[in-house]
């Protein structure tokens, strides 16, 4: 069994990762962490640098779970990357973090979370920061 989590170093990414770790521990599943960026910026705070990658690797190892970290800056969007990895890994669950959006933002189609929820072939667990689960 495999769980895929979309992760960027942000409060929403941390909430998703925390929950994905709990789910992986609970079910004995492999956790695939997808860190994705369009790669269109010289300095991209969404893509893990070497130090952040090492810290994440240590954190997952200390959680006692089987895991893989997938980094991608190939110019595709995060939703596409997460959905591709989930399909390739035959994931049984995708975990994503949600950020609060304005009323206007809610009308805009094509958000990463919305695309994942609508296009995934497996259940999607969406978590909020400090959701108290």
TrEMBL record:
<feature type="domain" description="UspA">
    <location>
        <begin position="2"/>
        <end position="128"/>
    </location>
</feature>
<dbReference type="InterPro" id="IPR006016">
    <property type="entry name" value="UspA"/>
</dbReference>
<dbReference type="InterPro" id="IPR014729">
    <property type="entry name" value="Rossmann-like_a/b/a_fold"/>
</dbReference>
<dbReference type="InterPro" id="IPR006015">
    <property type="entry name" value="Universal_stress_UspA"/>
</dbReference>
<protein>
    <submittedName>
        <fullName>Universal stress protein UspA</fullName>
    </submittedName>
</protein>
<dbReference type="Pfam" id="PF00582">
    <property type="entry name" value="Usp"/>
</dbReference>
<comment type="similarity">
    <text>Belongs to the universal stress protein A family.</text>
</comment>
């Amino acid at each position: 069994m495999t769980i895929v989590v979309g992760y960027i170093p942000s409060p929403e990414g941390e909430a998703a990762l925390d929950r994905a770790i709990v789910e992986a521990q609970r079910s004995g599943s492999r956790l695939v962490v997808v860190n994705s960026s369009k790669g269109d910026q010289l300095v991209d705070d969404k893509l893990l640098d070497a130090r952040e990658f090492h810290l994440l690797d240590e954190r997952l190892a200390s959680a006692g779970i089987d895991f893989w970290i997938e980094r991608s800056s190939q110019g595709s969007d995060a939703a596409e990357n997460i959905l591709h990895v989930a399909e390739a890994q035959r994931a049984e669950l995708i975990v994503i973090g949600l950020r609060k959006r304005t009323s206007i933002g809610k009308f805009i189609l094509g958000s990463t979370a919305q695309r994942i929820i609508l296009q995934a072939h497996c259940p999607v667990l969406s978590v909020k920061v400090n959701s108290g689960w």
